[in-house]
Amino acid sequence: MSTVDTSALVTNQPGYGNHVAERTLAAAGKVHLAQVPRGIKIWVVTDGVDEAKELLADPRLSKSSPLLQSVIREQLAETGQEADEVQLSGMFGPSMMYSDGEDHARLRRLVSKSFTPKQVDRLQPLVDRLTGELLAGLPTGVPLDLVSEFTYKLPITVICEVLGLPVEDREQVHGWTSALVLDDPERTMPASRAMEAYLGRQIARVRHTPDDGLICSLVHASVDGDMLTADELMAQLFLLVVGGHETTSGLIANTMYALLVQPDRWRRLVEDPALARAAVDETLRFDAPTRNTTHRVTVEPMRIGDTVVPKNAIVMVSLSAAGRDPGSTADRPDEFDLHRADRRHLAFGYGPHNCLGRNLALLQAVAAVTEMAARFPNARLLDTSPPRMEASIVGGIAKLQVLLQ
């Protein structure tokens, strides 16, 4: 086991993020103890794909919201903080992300029908239309930030449409979600409170005036007479709003960076648009927008590698390290290869908590990259070392300066 500081967990380095740091961590061992803001201790596992899969499917690593919140509050108390007075982000609520067993299965069933391949295919015309409209409005011949002008606007607009949120609210909603994914309590907590108040108003709205959005469906959802509690409903909406666009935005931005940073890659895509899916898949392996898993808690002492992680420890598994594992690809795991045969990755997770929105994310990313290449064949990257989001879980590029032409 090694002990590292917070910076080893945060993807705030330019370019391809902290992959050098991750490789250094992996060389030092499989398990690393880090401390994040407020003094919370996290055990981070940097291992190969197969080993990571075993952990993500291991019931000894619980996703229970009550257990996680209890452990966080206990750690806060140990640092002298008044744990009972400390608010926790709405992201830690009892959603399908933070639940186990039948609770998780029940919550997932209430949402899953909206993300089946058939339902996602029905969104193809919407995604294509929005992609075309957003790109048509971008200026050419002048520097612009592709993240603020395009890569987040597409997925936030799509998820607003799916959920039934007013499109005119998307800037405000994105402002909250971008704060919620950071490791900065001074920003996340005000955003969490504002988001909860906003979603409460949306819930009240659809109770009074039902519509076709997913929020309305969840408010009235029932499986064998089972409905969401108020806390579950709020937690599910937090997850869907944040997870429904932040990681997709990162996937699009990271893919565009990987293609534009080597002009020959961009030329190959322009000449062969069918490579768009390969580019997205390779980005998921090489530069995943979800760098580490969300929190898990050990329900008993666990041996991971040569380290015994104690009971009630918070654990994250490095998805980036798994994607760069030399054993996960045929060769050259640290190279971006549009023609790689083996692109095994865990960017969408694994086991019961695999990402429900993966098909929607892929649909948007492939459409975005394909249309970008068609409209701007001579696009250029202006900053080859773009900044990253300062977060331990998400790993998206924060700004991507380009010249479209």
From TrEMBL:
GO terms for molecular function: heme binding; iron ion binding; monooxygenase activity; oxidoreductase activity, acting on paired donors, with incorporation or reduction of molecular oxygen. The keyword Nucleus does not apply. Keywords: Heme, Iron, Metal-binding, Monooxygenase, Oxidoreductase. This is Cytochrome P450. The keyword Metal-binding applies. Belongs to the cytochrome P450 family. Pfam families: p450.
